[in-house]
Specification:
The complex is a heterodimer of chains A (about 700) and B (about 290). Chain A is an alpha+beta fold and about 700 residues long. Chain A contains 18 helices and 27 strands. Chain A is about 30% helix and about 25% strand. Chain A has a 7-stranded mixed sheet with strand order 3-5-1-12-9-10-11, with helices on both faces. Chain B is an alpha+beta fold and about 290 residues long. Chain B has 2 domains: about 160 residues, Uridine Diphospho-n-acetylenolpyruvylglucosamine Reductase, domain 3 (2-Layer Sandwich); about 100 residues, CO dehydrogenase flavoprotein, C-terminal domain (Enolase-like, domain 1), CATH 3.30.390.50. Chain B has 12 helices and 13 strands. Chain B has a 5-stranded antiparallel sheet with strand order 4-5-10-6-7. In chain B, helix 11 packs antiparallel against helix 12. The radius of gyration of chain B is 20 Å and the shape is globular. The N and C termini of chain B lie far apart (about 50 Å). The relative contact order of chain B is 0.12. The chains are: A alpha+beta (about 700), B alpha+beta (about 290). Chains A and B meet through helix 2 and helix 18 of A and helix 12 of B. Bound molecules: flavin-adenine dinucleotide. The site of flavin-adenine dinucleotide has 26 residues of chain B, from strand 2, helix 2, helix 6 and strand 10.
């Protein structure tokens, strides 16, 4: 049998390259109305009066009063209304929809709406904490009391926009008392579970269908639930299909982004320059509504000692609420922020202690059997030392660092060590998701994969079908993975958290094994497999204690940059990465994840800059919000080590987020070494480098 | 309703401009963005449009004695690879947009759009390039630096069209164009510098300096340049700080969503200093 890692053409390759794939914006059901959104012009205030223009025949407005059920979007915290009622909490908050047959007319009507507001004092800083957690490992107080030296720094990360190719879009189609939603989404059942309470109907009255999705990166995890609720209310009111399709500027202005973070780290240094304790304070900007910020915060907090073992930890975290666009899910989900901070902190500790950063990091690296920051256990082998060795060889690290060792050589290397916890945080898989998959063997001996996992470009359609085909020993074209439809497929959980191959794929592998045992040619059979947590996983949600994840993927990145001494522009000269994702299910798809994650992660570190001034986004389109082009990518070298995980399909762990996480700290460290100034804030834009060169700490 | 007209020749286009309220559409790479509207709805044009990109009379590159003439509708990509186009112009175009955009964007459009960040402008100012403006009543020539009066503001009459760009032949021992954008390609300039010098027998015989994106229009000051005429190379290099000081008051950039005032100012000066410091006595045949 072929090694499963051997690449195959993606099963949706043809429809996407030929342009025949129909995305949501390509769909126009008979009689569909367009919808445009009227939004808050102010960051904080109350509506005093709102006067609509006379609406022509066939046009309608839809607002909170039209909601048959509850005016709240079910995410995790259901604090975000479907439509604002009285209070406005951010610039761009939706107040109502105008729907009708002609977009030009809608646009004119929209500009004729007269809104009067009473402004309230907006909050843009971290004074309004809404979620707070704290946990302890060991005895940090004692460790700090005994410390030889205490070192403390603060780190900051900025907003980041997902910049998926396909903007958000949703179509709601009413048929009798049934509502069908078709949208660019990551999580069909999230959408369904959000729409049901808003329509105030029973669960069987809402159906969600996923068409091809043109990229998501977390941006289509929870945000689509909001527009699905709006479109459904509009379709219910008008009894017509309603298309709510965003274009780029609107998409950038009002959809969720990565949480900006302020992270304060304090280390107790003991004998032999050992980090005996870390105290951390992690603050995430949730924007106007919490949504799933709580879970993002958890992921940051759990990784507060990064890839290192620190015996004593005191970690506190909070999400604060501001009058800005809500932040939400984004590839990495809290990990990119904390790994930037911890990796830079370890580099800065080493420098302060007069040590070589790499040696310092390796001395503290977690080993199999060590306790995690939350006092769980790293059960599986950790191959990072071997991976580091390989990354150093590939990048010629030692020679180059020696060569670039002047005061400010304008050329430098940076290295980062990192992991990603695979699957939902804590006991989420067992208590919240409870995933279920089905395989249906047809009489013609083909097999249908019935799951709610979404292919958003990451290749899930191919990798999951491959796992089933491989287990059943069938050619790939005998296994079909149709686009999910909640009336047909069970809830296998959201397509998030690098869980799809490991958790959903793992369930499919088990189902396929059972199917194989019962296989009778020509006989149709359908079977279901449900998630069972490994019994050794123990997680105490309240105390933040225990095993936060069933498995960890690991990575090592080396990044080389040059900095133009005249313009402070950074050029990526090359990157070298070694990843442990257990076992690769398809090499080419993995390479796609590696190159994309690296590009998005590097840009997070030095290029992508998004600012909010008095609640108003300054970069509102892709002319001003700069993301990398192919010319900005250096040559990327990638290698994989195999380290099969017993519970993953064929040994696979998560891969999709891991590849983004180490890039920002590696590029920031490289820039730091190139200019001879400490970097504690990303993105490290040329403008900020100029400031550092003028005033920064060496 | 605005009208959209596709004339068969230049004369027809000029007639439309003369008798009606029309705006010229060249490659449309600025206009289509500026007049963007919701998808599947008509573009948001306030005026009638006359489409001219296809007019052969306005396309092409012709070498004349001591100058090259370029039709206003010539796509940038054609200029990029043409041996008769001055190397500085090609360098600027090589830094512009992306290949796809360069195949439709025109030189005339970059001038007539009159953006402070238009990338061919510093080079065209530096080379004393001129524009031919034509209407049914006749034609006139004007230096590009006199044509542009501010951001998106030109001394052009509504019935006139920019038909041709003329670039005098010049000789430099050293020249540079540096564009600073937010990324390596497809970015709007935060600041740019076009500079050229002819060093003959150790003396400055010609020094030209033009900055883009640091003021409402391109910054070029011939008096300042002239002050160094005849100076020796080492006088120029020793005097580089004095030279930079002279430009300080002229560089008046803004803070916006793409960059900051301080950065633009400092980088503009850095680029100029770097150019001056890179000057050396030419050894071989000067580059073109
Ligand atoms: C993705 C992208 C990237 C870009 N990158 C760059 C860049 O790096 N650097 C840069 O400088 N620009 C850039 N641009 C802007 C644009 O491509 C250039 O300014 C281009 O040269 C404009 O030419 P055009 O033919 O498309 O002009 P059009 O859009 O057709 O016209 C621009 C303006 O000039 C007027 N006009 C055009 N021709 C004439 C004429 N002959 N007579 C009178 N008026 C006329 C039009 O009425 C209009 O007001 C970019 C644009 C895009 C979309």
């Amino acid at each position: 049998m072929r090694d499963i890692s051997t690449s195959v053409p993606k099963t949706d390759h043809w429809e996407k390259t030929a342009g025949t794939a129909k995305y949501v914006a390509d769909l126009a059901p008979e009689g569909a109305l367009h919808a445009l959104t009227f939004r808050s012009p102010i960051p904080h205030g109350e509506i005093r009066s709102l006067v609509l223009p006379d609406l022509p025949e066939g046009y309608a407005s839809v607002d909170a009063r039209d909601i048959p059920g509850k005016n709240g979007v079910h995410i995790i915290q259901d604090d975000m209304p479907v439509f604002a009622e009285r209070t406005l909490r951010y610039v761009g908050e939706p107040i109502l929809l105008l729907v009708g047959p002609d977009k030009t007319v809608l646009k004119r009507l929209l500009s004729a709406i007269r809104l009067e507001t009473v402004p309230l004092e907006p909050v843009f800083d971290d004074r309004r904490a809404d979620v707070w957690h704290h946990y302890v490992k060991g005895d940090p107080d004692q460790a700090f009391a005994r410390a030889k030296r205490i070192i403390e720094y603060e780190y900051q990360t900025g907003l980041q926009e997902q910049a998926y190719l396909e903007p958000q879009g949703m179509i709601a189609i009413p048929e009798g008392d049934k509502m069908t939603l078709i949208g660019s989404i990551q999580c069909p059942y999230y959408v369904k579970n959000a729409v049901v309470p808003v329509l105030g109907c029973t669960s069987d009255k809402v159906r969600v269908i996923q068409p091809p999705v043109g990229g998501a990166f977390g941006g289509k995890e929870e945000f689509p639930s909001l527009i699905a609720c709006q479109a459904a209310v509009a379709a219910r009111k008008t009894k017509r299909p309603v298309r709510l399709i965003y274009e780029r500027p609107e998409d950038i202005e009002v959809t969720t982004k990565r949480h900006p973070a302020r992270i304060r780290l304090r280390a107790a240094i003991g004998e032999g320059n050992v980090v005996e304790a870390i105290a951390s304070d992690i603050r995430l900007d949730g924007g106007a509504y919490l949504g799933l910020s709580n879970v993002v915060l958890s992921r940051s907090m759990i990784a507060t000692t990064g890839a290192y073992t620190v015996p004593n930890v005191s970690c506190s975290g909070e999400v604060y609420v501001t009058n800005t666009v809500p932040t939400g899910a984004f590839r990495g989900f809290g990990a990119p922020q904390i790994f930037f901070a911890v990796e830079m902190f370890f580099q800065h500790l080493a420098k302060d202690l007069g040590e070589d950063p790499l040696a310092f990091k390796l001395r503290h690296l977690a080993k199999q059997g060590d306790l995690t920051a939350t006092s769980g256990t790293f059960r599986d082998p950790i191959l990072v030392p071997k991976m580091v060795k390989r990354a150093l060889e590939m990048s010629d690290y030692q020679n180059k660092t020696r060569r670039y060792s002047g005061e400010s050589p304008y050329r430098g290397l940076g290295l980062s060590l990192f992991f990603h916890g695979c699957g939902f945080t804590g006991s989420g898989e067992a208590t919240i998701i409870k995933a279920e998959v089905q395989l249906r063997k047809n009489a013609d001996d083909t097999v249908d994969v019935l799951i709610a996992a979404v292919d958003m470009g990451q290749g899930a359609k191919t990798t999951l079908a491959k796992i089933v085909a491989h287990t059943l020993d069938l050619p790939l074209d005998r296994v079909r993975f149709p686009y999910p439809d909640t009336d047909v497929v069970p809830d296998s959980g959201p397509t998030v958290a690098s869980r799809t191959v490991m958790i959903v794929g793992g369930l499919l592998e088990k189902a396929a094994q059972k199917l194989k045992a019962r296989w009778v040619s020509g006989v149709a059979v359908q079977l279901t497999e449900r998630y069972q947590p490994p019994e050794w996983i123990k997680w105490d949600e309240k105390a933040f204690r225990g095993d936060a994840y069933p498995a960890y993927s690991w990575g090592v990145d080396v990044v080389e940059v040059s900095v133009d001494p005249r313009t402070y522009q950074v050029k990526i000269e090359g990157t070298w990465s070694v990843y442990d994702v257990g076992k690769g299910i398809d090499e080419r798809i993995l390479e796609g994840q590696a190159d994309g994650g690296m590009t998005q992660g590097l840009a997070y570190g030095y290029m992508e800059n998004m600012e909010i001034k008095q609640g108003v986004l300054r970069q509102r389109n892709l002319t001003d919000y700069i993301i990398p082009t192919a010319c900005d990518c250096g040559p990327y070298a990638v290698e994989w080590v195999e380290n099969p995980f017993v519970y993953g399909p064929m040994g696979a762990k998560g891969a999709g987020e891991l590849t983004l996480i180490g890039a920002a700290p590696a590029v920031a460290a490289a820039i730091e070494n190139a200019i001879g100034r400490r970097i504690r804030k990303i993105p490290a834009t040329p403008e900020s480098l100029l400031e550092l060169i003028e005033y920064g700490k060496r | 309703m605005v009208e959209h007209r596709i004339p068969e020749n230049l004369n027809e286009a000029l007639k439309l401009l003369y008798h009606g309220d029309y705006q010229v559409m060249a490659g449309g790479t600025d206009l289509m963005v500026q007049r963007r509207s919701l998808s599947d709805t008509p573009l948001d044009f306030p005026k009638n449009m006359v489409y001219c990109a296809h007019l052969q009379e306005l396309r092409g590159i012709r070498k004349e004695a001591h100058r090259v003439e370029i039709g206003a509708m010539t796509p940038l990509e054609d200029l990029l690879c043409h041996p008769d186009v001055p190397s500085l112009v090609r360098r600027a175009i090589g830094e512009m947009a992306s290949p796809a955009i360069r195949h439709v964007a025109t030189l005339g459009g970059n001038i007539a759009n009159a953006s402070p960040a238009g990338d061919t402008l510093p080079v065209l100012y530096l080379l004393d390039a001129w524009a031919e403006l034509r209407s049914l009543a006749g034609s006139r020539m004007i230096l590009i630096r006199d044509l542009i009066t501010g951001p998106r503001a030109l001394k052009i009459h509504p019935e006139e069209m920019l038909t041709k760009i003329g670039i005098p032949e010049m000789h430099f021992s050293h020249e540079t164009f540096v564009k600073v954008g937010g990324r390596q390609a497809d970015a709007i300039s935060k600041v740019s510098l076009a500079a050229a010098a002819d060093i003959v027998e150790g003396k400055v015989s010609d020094l030209r300096i033009a900055f883009g994106a640091v003021a409402p229009t391109v910054v070029r000051d011939e008096t300042l340049e002239g002050a160094w005429e005849g100076a020796t190379l080492s006088e120029l290099k020793v005097g580089v700080w004095r030279l930079l000081d002279m430009y300080v008051p002229l560089i008046r950039p803004i803070d916006d969503q793409r960059s900051g005032k301080h950065y633009r100012h400092q980088v503009a000066l850095n680029l100029l200093r770097d150019f001056i410091e890179s000057l050396s006595e030419p050894t071989s045949e000067p580059g073109r």
